[in-house]
Amino acid sequence: MKYLKEHEDFLKKHEATPRKELAKLFNTKFKTKISVRNISQKCRKLGLICPNNGRFQKGNIPVNKGTKGLTTANKTSFGPGHRPKQTKKVGTISTRKDKNGSLYMHIKIEDPNKWQMLHVYIWEKKHGEIPKGYCVIFKDKNTLNTRLDNLMLVSRDELGKTKSKICLY
């Protein structure tokens, strides 16, 4: 819509009126159907200041005055033993990518949230704890093939010499 001088004078005269009311008054007086947003934009172009611009006016007291921080879950929000729906059970196996994009399987071994790589878990169940300076690798280099006959224990020195990149522990 093209605003006439008469329209602009009306807007200037009613500058202090909130924009919602101003749109109603404008549409009633000039028999138009202009939106509140359109009226607000025209007022902005004319340099008219709206008294209700979404900010606190001097002397207004905010509703949350005196409260601290954000309201979040507190220690009484959940009953004892309550677990979220997405909580995984011990023994759950999931597949994850490492920083290089390789896929590895992990198993949840303890609550609340203790996970271990599945190939290391399988090796330790059969042969005991992995000694310091050693790691478990995949013979066929397929990180999703966690069968015991595909796993091999090698020292980190030997691994560095062969330049095999698959060693996670």
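The above is record 1. Record 2 follows with the same two-line structure.
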Amino acid sequence: MIVITAPTGNIGSHLLPLLLDSDHHEQVRVIVRDPARLADTVRDRVEVITGSHGDAETVDRAFAGADAVFWLVPPDASRTPEDAYSGFTRPAARALAAHGVGHVVGVSALGHGTPVAHRAGLVTATHAMDDLIAATGVSYRALANPSFFENLLEDADTIRDTGVFTDAVDADHKAPLVAVADIAAVAAGLLVHRTWSGNDHIPVLGPEDLSPNDLARIMTEHLGRPVRYEQQPLDDLGASLVGYGLDKEFAQGIVDMKRAKNEGLDGGVTRTPASSTPTTFHQWCARTLAPAVLAGGSHDAH
């Protein structure tokens, strides 16, 4: 029995079909607040536990008889970083231990062992969550991810209307980026083939490092219109996030994460064939960004 959290999110919605269509034929159970959000192609093929995976009673029911769990925390900007990650995870950690779950694959972040990891805001909080899960005695694999291509979907409207996208990192700072579908594929492989044990971090790096200026050049090529990058000062970013209603500490956690990324947080792992994933930014632009921008609709990124 494999339990999937956040099955309707960007990663989970890619992961579920991979598990259901694999030759492994293991039963899959999902935890979801609203079962109606499950795709029609999967709803009748999984066991559904309705509720939040941050709720003790829900995870207790979901983890009973489970052999493996896919763990993803949906960031809650109304809470402090520690509470949003470790606080959310503590009921699950107790349930993992109580039910003797053997294997957990979690969505985490790059940066372990880098000089800035201890002051990287949301990433530091994510690493503390990893330690909490590992301390339960399960075999744990933390998927150490960089930023996602899909984050650019948040700028789809402004890219279409003004030809501009923004972030807080330096324009020429190259760093790994990855497609969520590739993260799901790595997770599926670990969940299906559970020959591993102990605790480790698995870098999921994408095929190449890219800077914001590189992204602008590639988007210009695929959209057939000029796209440029504007760097937002960190102080302005923090103020705008608080203005949008985010918890002040959570907003500071985002600022600290962005600063750490600029200082090399994601550069501590050498890319190898094992840590590279196949989807290029060129491919992702053609398949996902260009339709989103040119369609002119609203889009949800995670």
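The longest helix spans residues 81-99.
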